[in-house]
């Protein structure tokens, strides 16, 4: 009975895998930060961003998506349009590693098994985790490391357009904002509570960052059956 159960499970899993289509590829573009330090422009990439992406297409209209992206987030007050920030003249550079998972929805059917070139706008959202260093600005405005790191939870909100450029390649351009549940990425709020006196800026507004760029994915898997979705 045990072997029969295992055989049924493996057979079911095999049918599931063969009945879907997958995408794996790269993301390349730029990042910019929006917070209490630096420019407040929403789309202004100033640091390179690169990563990997995987998709599991469950229907012509939606797919599960997983990505891993590395970038530096940079904020420079002297490049801000706010004269108070320019006078303060703070700056920082914080490396982040983001893991994101969620659902991608297309505006129109996107079936890679159809003949010919096709394209569609899409939306992506889910949850993100970004690992970053902790630091603060001392009374002289000097960056001081806290020698710790934290994970910033966030919500990705991505708008893009994708098209197949060959039988197995899909090219997409996208702009994605990440709203985070932290105000620590730019050092405006120290991680340690006993350093609360070094906080500055709008402590009621959390940090944002943007990824703008392109994805190139390779598709594989047998022709899917979408009859159950």
Architecture overview:
By secondary structure, the protein is mostly beta strands. The protein has one domain: Porin. The chain is 10% helix and 54% strand. The protein is built from 2 helices and 8 strands, in the order αβββαβββββ. The chain has an 8-stranded antiparallel β-barrel. It starts with a helix and ends in a 9-residue tail after the last strand. The model is unreliable at 1-20 (pLDDT under 50). Residues 3-228 form the DUF6089 domain. InterPro entries: DUF6089, OMP/PagP_B-barrel. It holds the Pfam family DUF6089. This is DUF6089 family protein.
Estimate the strand proportion: over 45%
CATH class annotation: Mainly Beta
Q: Number of helix segments? A: 2
Report the span from N to C terminus. Answer: 32 Å
In helices, the fraction of residues equals 10-25%
Q: How many strands, what sense, and barrel or not for the largest sheet?
A: 8 strands, antiparallel, barrel
Class from helix and strand fractions: mainly beta
What value does the Rg take, in angstroms? 22 Å
Order of helices and strands: HEEEHEEEEE
Strand neighbour order, sheet with most strands: 1-2-3-4-5-6-7-8
- Note the overall shape: elongated
Question: What is the domain total for the residues?
Answer: 1
Q: List segments where confidence is low: pLDDT < 50 over at least 5 consecutive residues.
A: 1-20
For the secondary structure, the number of strands is: 8
* Mean pLDDT across all amino acids: 89
């Amino acid at each position: 009975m045990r072997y029969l159960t295992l055989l049924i499970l493996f057979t079911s899993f095999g049918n599931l895998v063969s009945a879907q289509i997958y995408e794996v590829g790269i993301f390349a573009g730029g990042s910019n930060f929006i917070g209490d330090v630096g420019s407040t422009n929403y789309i202004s990439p100033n640091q390179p961003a690169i990563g990997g992406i995987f998709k599991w297409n469950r229907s012509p209209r939606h797919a599960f998506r997983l990505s891993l992206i590395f970038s530096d987030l940079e904020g420079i007050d002297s490049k801000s349009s706010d004269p108070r920030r320019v006078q303060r003249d703070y700056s920082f550079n914080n490396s982040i590693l983001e893991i994101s998972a969620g659902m991608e929805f297309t505006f129109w059917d996107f079936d890679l098994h159809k003949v010919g070139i096709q394209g569609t706008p899409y939306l992506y959202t889910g949850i993100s985790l970004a690992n970053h260093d902790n630091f603060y600005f001392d009374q002289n405005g000097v960056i001081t490391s806290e020698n710790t790191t934290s994970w910033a939870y966030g919500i990705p909100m991505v708008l893009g357009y994708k098209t197949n450029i060959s039988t197995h390649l899909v090219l997409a351009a996208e702009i994605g904002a990440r709203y985070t549940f932290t105000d620590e990425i730019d050092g405006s709020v120290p991680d340690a509570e006993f350093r609360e006196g070094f906080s500055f800026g709008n402590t009621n507004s959390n940090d944002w960052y943007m990824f703008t760029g392109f994805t190139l994915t390779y598709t594989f898997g047998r022709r899917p059956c979408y009859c159950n979705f």
